[in-house]
Design goal:
- With 362 residues, the chain is α+β, with helices and mostly antiparallel strands.
- It has one domain: Penicillin V Acylase, Chain A.
- Helices cover 15% and strands 28% of the residues.
- It has an 11-stranded mixed beta sheet. Strands 16-5-6-17-18-19 form a 6-stranded antiparallel beta sheet, with helices on one face.
- Strand 14 and strand 15 form a beta hairpin.
- Helix 2 crosses helix 3 (228-236).
Length: 362
């Protein structure tokens, strides 16, 4: 690996050579979730966290819009009406951190990638986790961008054992917090964001900085960024809360085909840009300190980069889903391809790649 660093405004920019280079750095031991063995289910919550008081007309419309798309691997769709819930915690720890009401869970084992043909850039993402219900969420707040995201709603209290709560207006009130927990998503400007566990990440505390949950920060990215540069600025503008859940690193890409990986190396926000290639891949190891040998040892990284290199990054949304199928794990819960120019999302759940559901932003 050949890596050069430049510190500016508290951000370290790292350029990582992907092939034909040498250098130092080690690959952290793979987390148990990445071995292909499904992680143990987390304890079920007793109740979902719900807003108190009577519902507004917009909240009632939101909950009434819920519909089931797939009963086998539960998939729902909902449109959030009106203004979003407060995006920033008000003087208290962020309750929408990575653990939510379910408590600590073992690390995410996920794959995120860019097929960056400038004419049609596509972000692909596998979410490899517990078999829990998922929600395709649409938002279009007044004065803000329309977005689409996918949410693991077990973090709101709706695991498999509590799906029946969604059958009543009272029971589904916890879904009003869904906008705070996008596990991946895209906005109307073609800016996409995703994440994966990176167990060596350290997020430090800086005096005067607002502390935001490590999943909620992605909602702030979707609401405030149009470009990779702006997304990096949002990620660097807050202190992140990794407590109670696995540390993460992030992948951002925009409609121009630009992308970057954002990591926290020794407490310092570190940006790995896409570089001259029109593709980029992120899995569950630290890119900044990895070596060519350690990266090639990872089956998902090796498969994805070889396919993207052979295609020179020019894969359409359907081909990206094919690639996600080939790098799936035994516990891959959903695969999604975000068409950044077309503002469309193609979603597969339960590894049923014959059934693809298509959604538009807005």
């Amino acid at each position: 690996m050949r890596a050069t660093g430049r510190a500016a405004a508290g951000i370290l920019l790292v350029v990582v050579g992907l092939t034909g280079c040498s250098g130092t750095g080690t690959l952290p031991a793979a987390p148990a979730v990445a071995t292909g063995t499904p992680p143990a289910a987390a304890p079920a919550p007793s109740v979902a966290v719900s807003p108190a008081g009577p519902l507004t007309a917009a909240q009632e419309r939101t909950l009434a819009s819920l519909r089931v798309l797939d009963e086998r691997h539960p998939l729902y769709e909902m449109t959030y009406a009106g203004a979003l819930p407060p995006l920033l915690p008000a003087g208290a720890p962020d309750p929408a951190g990575p653990s939510g009401p379910l408590g600590f869970r073992r690390p995410f084992g996920c794959t995120v990638l860019l097929a960056g043909d400038p004419a049609r850039p596509v972000v692909g993402r596998n979410f490899d986790w517990d078999p829990n219900p998922a929600l395709v969420l649409h938002t279009h707040p007044p004065g803000g961008p329309a977005t689409i995201s996918v949410v693991d709603i077990s973090y709101l209290g709706y695991d498999q054992a509590h799906r029946a709560d969604l059958d009543t207006p009272t029971g589904r009130r916890g879904l009003l917090r869904a906008p705070l927990l996008p596990f991946d998503g895209m906005n109307e400007h073609g800016l996409a964001v995703g994440m994966a566990a990176e167990e060596s990440a350290v997020a430090t505390r800086r005096p005067g900085r607002t502390v935001v949950g490590s999943v909620r920060i992605m909602r702030l990215v979707l609401e405030r960024a149009r470009t990779v540069r702006q997304a990096v600025a949002v990620l660097g503008g807050y202190d992140l809360d990794f407590d109670g859940g696995p540390p993460l690193h992030y992948f951002v890409a925009d409609a121009t085909g630009d992308s970057a990986i954002v990591e926290f190396v020794g407490g310092r926000l570190t940006v790995i840009p896409r570089g001259p290639r029109v593709w980029q891949v992120m899995v569950n190891f630290q890119q900044a300190s990895s070596t060519p040998a350690s990266r090639q040892a990872d089956r998902r990284w090796r498969t994805a980069t070889a396919r993207l290199a052979a295609a020179r990054g020019r894969l359409g949304a359907g081909q990206v889903l094919d690639l996600l199928r080939d790098v799936r794990q035994g516990h891959t819960q959903w695969s999604v391809a975000y068409d950044l120019r077309g503002r469309r999302a193609s979603v597969v759940v339960g590894q049923d790649y014959r059934t693809v559901r298509h959604f538009r932003v807005g």
